């Protein structure tokens, strides 16, 4: 029978908050190397804290974390924030120039990286000390640290718990710097405090009803706030995170849910487009699955319907969030999905959402305005960007950049990103409405609409789609379908069928890349 560890150190430190619930013998992480218990995770964290201490880092220094989702990544993340340092997760899919820029923007003093990433980004990392996953090789991750004898990593003399277990953390201290996805501009470094992490984590656990028996399949990267929230919530309840790094072959995820008896699945719209229309997910019963989470952009209502039908025994949670809000801002209770079709719901516990006009006044029911958010999970701002912080974090709360309407019950319906509206023939057209209409054609897998400069229309609507393997649907078929559902001014001027839509590192459609491609094809800059 396993015993739960005594709570040690400072509960205001997010790392200890996350890791205190799991019993030593319970499985914390499943990755390509196998299962890793909470005892092994705590030992790995202690080893990495000692390695960081050996580099002479001071509390508040920033440490980048680079690599694929893995047991090492989880231990590295907890070690950094547990030691009173600031974690700076970076995408291993970025270019070396992007990594160098982000390390500079974050003013990083060291890097924790797996060996593959360390080799691949050697030039970008060279100015900084790099601790790679070899530090865990040979370390006896067997629970010894519970008795005060922390296993030593090769080349390091390790004091018990690195001498850091009893430090006191100010909840307002920064714990993590999360980079925005950069869909409309260059990424910004969002400051996330210990208090932000703990508040958002407790709120998500409450409305999802997570328990220690839950096992989440993680297909999202941990450097993305949504992916990180899966780590936070499941470690906090003493559950298990099962890592899937092969979503390029999405059927693998379906197989892994079944093999690992996963109870929770989380994805962005592009994830569910593939699962529903390219894999066996919609035909295969997965009885272990009890919670399906969707966030990271609007999933077309027709696909939400398909998602509910695919695994009818599971509760589907449609959610809405932003990096600047730590992760989640709102959700729709599963029992309200049909009545509030297309809504992102109301604020999660501890968050208040309002829809406001350009002058800051709350809008009337049915009127358009921008969503603002207030709550303990809202970031204090961007690192080193006072102007950007002042523009985004206002006296009314966090400006989300999303235009929406609110109904008589207080449910919010996002119309579109403000930057994604298409101005055509004197109308402001929601790109999401065009995409949702297109996706009602069952042969399509994904769709993205953008505006392209046009002398007559101002902007012409250009629609990019991908289709099911083996389908013979062509651009004319898609246009005919759109004409049957949309007003004349909303019908795309052109349709292009692509093998895949460009995605950013977080799995969201990169509309800037589509705009660049469209402009280049038209000979524009």
Task: List the defining traits of the structure above.
Rossmann fold; GMP Synthetase, Chain A, domain 3; nine-stranded mixed sheet; disordered N terminus
Overall geometry: globular
What do the pLDDT scores average to?
90
**In angstroms, what is the radius of gyration?**
23 Å
Helical content band? 25-40%
How many domain modules? 3
Question: How is the secondary structure organized here?
Answer:
Blueprint: H1 14-19, E1 27-31, E2 34-37, H2 38-54, E3 62-66, H3 71-82, E4 86-90, H4 96-105, E5 108-113, H5 115-120, H6 122-125, E6 130-132, E7 174-179, E8 189-193, H7 194-208, E9 215-218, H8 225-236, E10 240-243, H9 251-260, E11 264-267, H10 269-278, E12 291-294, H11 301-310, E13 315-321, E14 328-332, E15 346-347, E16 351-356, E17 369-375, E18 381-382, H12 386-392, E19 393-394, E20 397-406, E21 412-417, E22 422-424, E23 427-429, H13 431-438, E24 444-454, E25 458-467, H14 475-485, E26 494-497, H15 511-521
Parallel strand pairs: 1-10, 3-4, 3-5, 5-6, 9-10, 9-11, 11-12, 12-13, 25-26
Antiparallel strand pairs: 1-2, 7-8, 8-18, 13-14, 14-15, 16-17, 17-20, 19-20, 20-21, 22-23, 24-25
